[in-house]
UniProtKB/TrEMBL annotation, chains A, B:
Highest taxon of the lineage: Bacteria
Predominant place of localization: cytoplasm
Subunit structure: Homodimer.
Gene Ontology CC: cytosol
EC numbers for this chain: 6.1.1.15
Cellular compartment(s): Cytoplasm
SUPFAM superfamilies listed in its UniProt record: Class II aaRS ABD-related (SSF52954), Class II aaRS and biotin synthetases (SSF55681), YbaK/ProRS associated domain (SSF55826)
CDD domains per the UniProt record, alphabetical: ProRS-INS (cd04334), ProRS_anticodon_short (cd00861), ProRS_core_prok (cd00779)
Reactions listed under catalytic activity: tRNA(Pro) + L-proline + ATP = L-prolyl-tRNA(Pro) + AMP + diphosphate
Name of the featured protein: Proline--tRNA ligase
Keyword Amino-acid biosynthesis attributed: no
Entry-linked PROSITE patterns: AA_TRNA_LIGASE_II
Length: 564, 564
């Protein structure tokens, strides 16, 4: 493509409202433009990368037997009422009426639509398992769209859905999809982790999020230094290798700790490390109260606590509730001597402590030389804390590190939720009707494009991995007033295209400095410069990533490009 | 693809609400399903054909230097106010509000969006001409969606826009686009005509509609039996080869024609053919009255009349107006002796008449032996009638025939309308700001799919042209309980796929009759049947179109498929 005949509107300045690198670079290099808040146009370069991402996704979906379909963006409100999501989803669900005042939804996902189709068209177990997918525009009315393509209101998703009679069949498709996702993100040049994630409220089971590691990520991942293990920190289990301390148990003693409220204040006052104290918090879990005990240096993970307690809502109790129930403020709570009506849960790490400190349920007093199994009433040990960097990995291999990540995909065993709501059944091999079970699998296609830029750039601009670059090669004529250079440029453009190389040819009458700067900004893998040595048939080749330059003859260039 | 692993829900019965062949067959053969009125899902087979159509469109757009982009479906209402279309378009424009009560449009086209981008990003004539295109979902809230994919509310369009400084540049891009469209529809196996069409209200100039000939078409085309000439009948010019009659002029005479009102009644009463009478109609054109005269066997074309008169609105005058202005009812109107205030326009064919009949502006009386140039006051000759079958073609080559057509594409010289409304200017080579001129070019992608089926089917089902078939070959095992047949079927499936043939393999445990009927319905170009002679390594090959069957060995089959 000749640059004079396309639209690559580069920007010298960083746009004021672009707050992350991918957003800045995609705007500056002329890949996208914002139409209005959270809604973007993909300009020619952006659309080319999008097409490449879609091609990779399509190939890997087809390879695992996915059937491509295309469902409508407009969805009937009635279907969303059947699933219950019409009421459950808030204003992020875009709703509209047609000319007859019938209500519609602009689809953010397609569970309802696809389940209704399968309900109507699939009658027998013989037609299962079935996997369909689509690459399609989705809508979500974000309250605060931001980060460019990372959190927009109109975006491109690959969404896939699989239907099964049995859990084993769902497990197999889930694994096939998991593997396909790993291949897709690897082919796209992304540094990613498949992390164990929270299955949320829809009654699903296993789920993994595919996270591109990036400092702009909105999620924190805990991963192992020595294995594939990775999980959202909200979900990361703690490895239970705690065994009782061998310390000699000392005698329990109540001491005065005037005005010492935080774990650190108490530890400093009593002269012991913070992990020699126990932290005690009172939670309201639905309608009950729960006393939760962790080591002083650990933090309670409320998601884990919710799972352990099988409750919908959990929140810290009020000071008033603590005083009424336990007789003290939050700074002096403890599990010793509490009423049997109050459930006590200790984190696993508490198994291994001895002669520690905890609140005495009396303002300004703590117990020292506390030993849980000796001193506490009835309680249980559960995994209820956040994992920490340096902890052993839950699979026993290596230790945990943290990273930030951008969610680029998710695989999810949905189970029977939608099939139940919409009544999707088939006849099994006994001729009896059975409710389907289901998986759903998403990839944020436009978001993936941004994630690639987050991972592949330098100070001068984007550095596209070869496999996703919009063009393989950037051809530049240094002096467009020099006939020899222009002639060689034109000839090379023809020759490279004839050799099957995708070339962006900067044939514009711009200064060389502008062309070079824009070329770095756009970030194609290879730059070929036709300059002063054009008369000798010599060009300069520069690799964008290594910044290595080399002068070579046309023949050497043509030999080189065959290796691209 | 194994049929057991995909979703091809065929129907034996014709769905009650499917009123045209393409709609019936695409439903029955399991290519599409309706989600609700005017909104469809493309099932795996339908999506495969859609992908093929899109690929052809993309290749031909790229070949003429089109730059693929992707603009959003959500468009700001403000842009539509700038263009004036927010008010001009009625309820077919889908409108919605976001959570902040800002108004949006779901794009039926993208003139506003693309013009706003070019306005903001293109600053110099050096960046022109520029052609961008996209393949994208559009929305249009049809009052009465019908004919399946032919008139839906959510559909796929290829829309392209070109931007220019000069009319000559626009002409060149228009011609390139016209030629590309011809190649696209030829490659898709369509019998089509590029017809001259009405440029409508937006102030544009040349426009051609690409019409797939079909009896379900909503438009009538006039085309030449001997040349490329084709036009919407509303636009077809009449070839002006009329020369004055050589008859001897007889004396004008007023005769009584009691209660004879229609042309036929008067002709019968006076004993002459209908084309020996003149038809006179009074029109109200904006605020003036115009008397329009045609030969008795011709019909006034109001669109031509509007163009001739340069008016916005035209309608037949009321009886009251005729009586007040001319002193008679409609059945007895004529152009002789009318006031000079009334404009008189005669159709070109009137040039060649002699000694004809016309109304006398007196109820129940006509003139006979009328000769216009002798008897009429001031008048002009204009081309104001509908062309008729049998007329000479306007290009002088052949005669005119009529056909019905489905509009599958349109090319349109929009001119400066949108650029003016949105203020899209560039600096010309003198450094002065000039308003852009613009072309727009559409292809109904999903509609094209339906048009192909309208043209390619028989009583048994669809007959896909090879180049758009979802699979090249349908492989069928007659008896799925026969191990030899199944083994050969499986082996052939592998072998054909390895040879790069796209195979649909009916591996289901269905009766042979069902498989054959569904195979004809789906309509792949070649069917390969593994039956009783499996043990001898012999299969049957059937061409869907010719219905020719042939038994052959596996080797012969593999040699044959190389020719596909």
């Amino acid at each position: 493509m000749k640059q004079s005949q396309t639209l690559i509107p580069t920007l010298k300045e960083i746009p004021a409202d672009a707050d992350v690198t991918s957003h800045q670079l995609l705007l500056r290099a002329g890949f996208i433009r914002q139409n209005f808040s959270g809604v973007y146009t993909f300009l020619p370069l952006g659309k080319k990368v999008l097409n490449i991402v879609e091609k990779v996704v399509r190939e890997e979906m087809d390879a695992i037997g996915g059937n491509e379909v295309l469902m409508p963006a407009l969805q009937s409100a009635d279907l969303w009422r059947e699933s219950g999501r019409w009421d459950k989803m808030g204003p992020e669900l875009m709703r509209l009426n047609d000319r007859h005042e019938r209500e519609f939804v602009l689809g953010p996902t397609h569970e309802e639509v696809v389940t209704s189709i399968v309900r109507d068209e699939v009658k027998s177990y013989k037609q299962l398992p079935l996997t369909v997918y689509q690459i399609q525009t989705k809508f979500r009315d974000e309250r605060r769209p931001r980060f460019g393509l990372l959190r927009g209101r109109e975006f491109i998703m690959k969404d896939a859905y699989s239907f099964h009679l049995t859990d084993e069949s769902l497990d197999a498709s889930y694994q096939a999809m998991y593997d396909a996702y790993s291949r897709i993100f690897t082919r796209l040049g992304l540094n990613f982790r498949a992390v164990i994630a929270d299955s949320g409220a829809m009654g699903g089971k296993d789920t993994h999020e595919f996270m591109a590691l990036s400092k702009v990520g909105e999620d924190t991942i805990a991963y192992s230094t020595a294995s594939d293990y990775a999980a959202n920190i909200e979900m990361a289990e703690v490895y239970d290798n705690y065994s009782p301390s061998t310390e000699t148990l000392k005698e329990l003693e109540k001491v005065s700790t005037p005005n010492k409220k935080t774990m650190q204040e108490v530890a400093d006052f009593l002269g012991h490390p913070i992990d020699k104290g126990l932290k005690t918090l009172l939670f309201k879990a639905d309608e009950s109260f729960v006393l939760v005990v962790t080591r002083g240096d650990h933090e309670v993970n409320e998601i884990k606590l919710k799972h352990v307690l099988h409750v919908e809502n959990i929140e810290l109790a009020t000071d008033e509730a603590a005083r009424e129930l336990l007789g003290a403020d939050f700074g002096s709570l403890g599990p010793i001597g509490v009423s049997e009506d109050v459930q006590v849960i200790c984190d696993l790490a508490v198994k291994a402590v001895a002669n520690v400190t905890c609140g005495a349920n009396e303002d300004g007093f703590h117990y020292v030389n506390v030993n849980p199994s000796r001193d506490f009433g009835e309680f249980t040990y559960e995994d209820i804390r956040f994992i920490q960097e340096g902890d052993l990995s839950p699979d026993g291999k290596g230790t945990i590190k943290f990273a930030e990540g951008i969610e680029i995909g998710q695989v999810f065993k949905l189970g029977k939720f939608y099939a139940n709501q919409l009544g999707a059944e088939v006849l099994n091999d006994q001729g009896r009707a059975e409710t389907l079970t289901m998986g759903c699998y998403g990839i944020g296609v436009s978001r993936t494009l941004a994630a690639i830029v987050e991972q592949h750039h330098d100070d001068a601009g984007i550095v596209w991995p070869k496999q996703v670059a919009p063009f393989a090669l950037h051809l530049i004529v240094v002096n467009s007033k020099n006939d020899e250079q222009v002639a060689l440029g034109n000839a090379l453009y023809e020759q490279l295209q004839a050799a099957g190389i995708e070339v962006l040819y900067d044939d514009r009458k711009e200064r060389a400095g502008v062309k070079f700067a824009e070329s770095d900004l756009i970030g194609l893998p290879v730059r070929v410069t036709v300059g002063k040595k054009a008369s000798e048939g010599i060009i300069e080749l520069k690799e964008r990533k290594s910044e290595e330059k080399e002068e070579m003859t046309i023949d050497a260039l043509m030999a080189y490009v065959k290796t691209i």
